[in-house]
Amino acid sequence: MKLLLTLCFFILCSSCSTFSKKSAEDSFENIQIQEDKLEIQKLRELATLAITFEDTLLAQEKYETALQILAESEISSEDTTAINLIAEFETFKFNYNIETETTYEDISHEISDFLEDSTATLSPIPDESELVGSEMPLVINSKVLKALSYFTERIPDRFRTYLERSGKYVPMMKEIFAEEGLPEELVYLPIIESGYKVKAYSHAHAAGIWQFIPGTGRDYGLKRDWWIDERRNPEKSTRAAAKYLKKLYNQFGDWYLALAAYNCGEGRVGRHIRKYGTNNFWGLNRLPKETRNYVPSYIAATLIAKHPEKYGFKDLNYEQPELYETVVVETCTDLSILAKCAGVSLDRFQEMNPEFRRLSTPPTKKNFLVKVPFGKKWDFEDSYAKIPADKRVNFLEHKVRSGETLSSIAKNYKTSVRMIASANKLRNKNRLKIGQVLTIPTSSAGSYSTYEGYDEPQDYGYSKSTYKVRRGDTLGKIAKRKGTTISKLKKWNNLKSSTIRVGQKLKIWSKKSNSSYTKKEPNFQGTHKVENGESLWLIARKYETTVNQIKSWNNLRNNSIKPGQQLKIGNGKKSSSNSPSQNYSLENAKTHKVRNGESLWTISQKYGVSINQIKSWNGLSSSNIKIGQKLKIGTKTQSKNITQTSSGSKNSISHKVKSGENLSVIAQKYGVSVAELKSWNALQSNNLKVGQKLKIETSKKLSSTTQSGEIHKVKSGENLSLIAQKYGVSVKDLKNWNGLPNSKLKVGQKLKVSGKSNSFAEQKLHKVQNGDSLWVIAKRYGVSIGELKDWNNLKGSSLQIGQVLKVKSY
To answer: Could you report the per-residue pLDDT of 705-726, keeping only the tens digit for each?
Structure first.
């Protein structure tokens, strides 16, 4: 009996201890929630006070801090504190026209309600084959089946959009996750985070495809300030997400707990594990409702993404991966200027570089990397070099006078109060001092379009003239007389109004009559019949062109194509090797045996002839060819590598482009300029092809190389860009030849303008290691996948561990 009483006493004490411990944890959690609520209330009051004093910057900062506390707190999203804060912030933004990001159509509340509904319909149980081969555990339960039903029956159109949008990013994500050793299926997590929307933005200030809040993004290297937000950079944010997910998995040892922590915070998940004594995600049923339903939603989204046709998502038109090159922007520059240099619209440039929050690159950072369309790098660098640094963006200085306000100053310079306040780090917009000097950021797009030293309009077939205003003239009359518009006249002459005065000189651009400047229609060499499973991206790779070019040739508004559809394939820019003046003969014809993956386009490029010529030599009525088929390839009657003719006082020679050469290297070799090479050969860009022949004219005796040690003495007004353009070399080469740490020059300074070009380096060898891919290797060496394949004669993208690749680092 005594033993029994002792045992009962021990059990009672143990229960009291457990209860006491649980009660203490509950009490701690409640205290923490109350402290968070008090802090949010305090921040709301400070924001209201700031609004009273018209300090909207301070008010916005307080609201954003409160929203971040809410995001990391145990406060329920249905609590009045959360509801009131969000509603108040939305009202504040509306009343004061606060700039906001694009907001993602959040489905988390809606899907959570559906999964918690006991009457919700269940999807049929997935086939076991759908679960085989997955690196992630894919548990099937009633919530997963409800999520499948929700995606396929409630929001099928939206989900189709998410799937199609994923095609643009999933290949890149798979590469990065493979590098980090993470399960491939994690690339489908953005379906429930953002729908793969780059500019997704939530009330908790989470942004980008991976929905990082500012603090977590900063912890994983994503910069965010007034100018940029790297959370919206798909590649950088994916790398950050990979590192964060790996950290969470190492912390919890379970992928479901890691995903739950990704959704609601690792601290909260850790507290729930300790409080309820289980590390089984499905047993943590006191987590926030959205988190409880986050994992089953992810499992359902992954199943559909891996097997879309089984769930009714057929004929998906996946967006294609972005093909781009990176270029260096030396100084702060308007995005409108960068877009023009890249040959795209401002909207397209911003789409390629979504991290920019303003219309210029950060003024605080030099040598900023931006993306331009693949194949546009040289065109961009050539155009950008023509624009002096002081014409790329305008930052004016204004000295505050008596009676002025920030609003009146902003109106005077046609900018915003917020831009001035941010550029000068003003905490209170009403506290301006007489004599205070303010930095005024203003767009220089207008001055850029009229800058005389920038000849882009001439490059596109325009010439400039000057018109002197006469008595009785108006902008309308002048525009009508010159065949243009009032808005263009104002833009060319940086006019803020339509007022003009007698004797004023106006710049006017007009189209040249010279037929050499007339835009030529593409020379279509054949058609391609779309096969089942093909996309524009695959077809572009096959014909060594771009998706945009194919869309342009066929007037396509989007990337949608159908099996059986006939697409026109242009011959691109004709090189001199394809010129009609060249004579070909079949007397000594070569024979080409068609290999797997080849087309008339790739064969024509290999031999430097046109598709029409191959069809003519072989009696082909279409572009269809078969593996093993033998084709006759005509040979030129003039087979000399370099010919020299005399025309008056000029000599003309032909140079055959070799692997690794570019216009700068060739210009330096013959002692001419890049501009002359482009003029002699009617080149619209700096792109060259191996085997292409270039005509080189000179009135003096041609030397094979520029004299070594040629010196240039810097004159007033010159910069590295202008000097590089004059001698047909690159700014990088000038810096290297002269040991310059930056771009600063002094009048009278002597520069070497010749030497060993750094445009390409000696060949390197790379041994393929575990986890390597063409994409990874290309990124490592700063080259393109196409170049790697060309240097190593690779037909596909498959690599083997230990394989040795040739790499030329630029």
So the answer is: 333 346 778 876 677 766 765 6
